[in-house]
Amino acid sequence: MSRVLIIADHDGNQLGSGTSRCVTAAAKLGAAEVHVAVLAASGGAIAAQAAELAGVSKVLVVERAENAHLLAAVLAPQVVKLAAGYEYVLAPANTFGKDLLPRVAALLGVGQVSDLMFVESAHRFRRPTYAGNAIVTIESPPEVKLVATVRTASFAAAGGGGSAPVEGVSTDAVLPTHTRFVSINAAKTDRPELQSASRVVSGGRALASSDNFHLIYALRSAPRAPRWMPATCRATCRLGRPERLSPRSCTWRSASRVRSSTSPGSRMRVQ
């Protein structure tokens, strides 16, 4: 029976919503066990949140001072060591997963499946291409470890109520020294992140000018206004949700579960 390893996305305190959607995707693979790996400087609180997800068999915690900032170059060698004995390695298809898993796949010497959006069988999947305008069906060799990013918008979040055991583990991975965290500059805002916003209001050509964006912001004062995030049509398409937009004009439509792993205006510098 197969086993799935999910690499948890988090901000140091809170588990990212993409992780629970990866658990749902893992369940569709028919895996016997689903493990979540938390790599952090102090991952106890994050591991406890992952352990509550329904469908998780075990939570692995790798605590190292170098994991204080989720740098892909630092995490990838550790993930490769953890991946031994697993048939699948998954992560959300957000900034975190798209930065990390290509490195993991390269170190393992395998290809990567990007934006997995539908599971037909244990080794047959669908993924979007051409900015979501076409869907392709792919098959992976059963004898090769599958490394894949999961399109979180395509899977519902796993439920709660789980009580998976939490196990502290360590690896003998040699970490690179050529990459180090320098600083992070994040804009302060009360807007939700794109992946947690229940509505995304998009406006581009329909507004004619950036001077008219106040029409979108005015929606915040509307009665029973939901948690929402303004985005341009181009930005929404880049996030893989062009099907929510009119192909010829930028009409306003709701788009739930849009993915991102950084706050609006945030920038991280590494070198």
The quaternary organization reads as single chain
Mean pLDDT: 81
CATH architecture of the largest domain: 3-Layer(aba) Sandwich
Helix content: 10-25%
Strand content: 25-35%
List the secondary-structure elements in sequence, H or E.
EHEHEHEHEEEEEEEEHEHE
Short description:
By secondary structure, the chain is of the alpha/beta class. The protein contains six helices and 14 strands.
Write up what this structure looks like.
- By secondary structure, the protein is of the alpha/beta class.
- The protein folds into two domains: 3-179, Rossmann fold (3-Layer(aba) Sandwich), CATH 3.40.50.620; 199-270, no CATH class.
- It has six helices and 14 strands.
- It has helices spanning 17-28, 44-51, 72-82, 95-108, 214-217, 233-238, and strands spanning 3-7, 33-40, 58-63, 88-92, 112-116, 118-121, 124-129, 134-139, 146-150, 166-168, 181-185, 199-202, 228-231, 267-270.
- β6 (118-121) and β7 form a beta hairpin.
- α3 packs across α4 (95-108).
- The radius of gyration is 19 Å and the shape is globular.
- The relative contact order is 0.16.
- The model is unreliable at 235-271 (pLDDT under 50).
Name a few traits of the molecule.
271 residues, alpha/beta, 2 domains, seven-stranded parallel beta sheet, 6 helices, 14 strands, globular, disordered C terminus
Task: Furnish the topology, listing elements before pairings.
Layout lengths: L2 E5 L9 H12 L4 E8 L3 H8 L6 E6 L8 H11 L5 E5 L2 H14 L3 E5 L1 E4 L2 E6 L4 E6 L6 E5 L15 E3 L12 E5 L13 E4 L11 H4 L10 E4 L1 H6 L28 E4 L1
Parallel strand pairs: 1-2, 1-4, 2-3, 3-10, 4-9, 5-9, 12-13
Antiparallel strand pairs: 6-7, 7-8, 11-14
